[in-house]
Amino acid sequence: MGCGGCSTGRGCSTTPGTPAGCKNNGSCGTGGCNKLNVFDWLANMELPGGQAPFDIIEVRFKNSRKEFFRNVNNLQINTGEAVAVEASPGHDMGTVSMSGELVRLQLKKKGQDPASAEIKKLYRKARQSDIDKWKEAQSLESNTMYKARTIAVRLGLHMKISDVEYQGDKTKAIFYYTAEERVDFRELIKILAEEFKVRIEMKQIGARQEASRLGGIGSCGRELCCSTWLTDFRSVTTGAARYQQLSLNPLKLAGQCGKLKCCLNYELDSYLDALKDFPETETKLETLRGIPFHQKTDIFRRLIYYSYRDEPDVFIAVPVTRVKEIIAMNKEGQKPDTLVIFKEPAFVQKEPDFENVVGQDSLTRFDKKKGNRNHNNKKKRGTQSGDAGAAAQAVGSGRPAGQGQPRRQAPAQRQAGPAVPGQNRPPRPPQQNKPAQQNKPTQPGKPAQQNRPSQQNRPPQQRRNRPPRRDDKPSPPPTEGA
Predict the structure, then answer these.
(1) Which residues on adjacent β-strands are paired with residue 59?
(2) pTM to 2 decimals?
(3) Beta-carbon neighbour count of residue 48 at 10 Å?
(4) Is the pLDDT at 152 greater than 70, yes or no?
């Protein structure tokens, strides 16, 4: 990921070789700085009284190479610190990946004896001069690998040089390669020693180790397991794919290394436990229709799919319990009619889980007559418009609102259109000559009314003076001699 011990050699920040953000220089536990990080779950536990800390530490070098070293000088070492350790020849530089009692468990897991004399020594913590020389050596690795590949192709060697690692003191270089056959690289070592002026060491690795060192992104979208946390490579066979009902497609089952994916072993135990209760797929079932043959098995849904010879495209899902029943019937000499028994589900009326307070469960609660609603709306709108018209007419005529009713327009006037604004009332139609009103009998206690002449028949002196209306035209001024 760009830290001091990775293959890229590029730093994650402005300072080469140091990660940005946490400032822990690769000792954080997030998994974003180093490969094969270790979570020390014993770090918060104190040792019993009088017991000395374990004197062996684990140091990680470039990519996934790790070795154990003995702390002979009893230095206070923390995880993530750069240290100088013993090498052959000279000294090497690495980063502490594990310390304390967890190293004892790791040695036991790998089968190494803590008292063995083969465990090399820890010299000191890295100085600034050691770190500068270490970074200078890392900057030479890329060009050295490309030149070594060119020399190997020129010599006609069937090998692939995948990685080059310089020692911390820049006195030795380790070349990692993969090859399918035995390779005679004695001439290659001579040429490389003369070209780079260092001691040459060749190490052959497998395809899985190559993918672990180089890293990459798997088909799942995550980083490769072998380059992040997986340390032991167990053999993966095609039987793991068969137990999980996977198609034997090498393009889908192969990983970055070209071998079967290691993740095929992760869920294999769960499938094997589930298959213990399943009958053998080679066991033939006999029915009156014929002998069906096995197509596929859905392990976690506990279904086995069969089909008949006459209809091979029709898959019939049969539960495991039903398959066992058919096998038991065949042993007794009986044959069922079909593979699956179809039972018509009984109709169960579900009672409502609420009280019918406002008729929620009524099927006709939305079937209301729309005519009554429209009639009420029209009546309401008519009343509101009539009240508004009466108020407007009262304001125009000068009388208070609420007194009197607005005059109903004649049919001819209603058809003609709305009244012109500014007029209080529409013009009256021409009046016809009506016969003179006869004297009506008067009620007792009231004087008889006399027929009074109309306004037109009255002399000008007797006409009532009324205020001019808005629609009345002003009379012309009197002229002389009128």
Answers:
(1) 67, 96
(2) 0.58
(3) 5
(4) yes
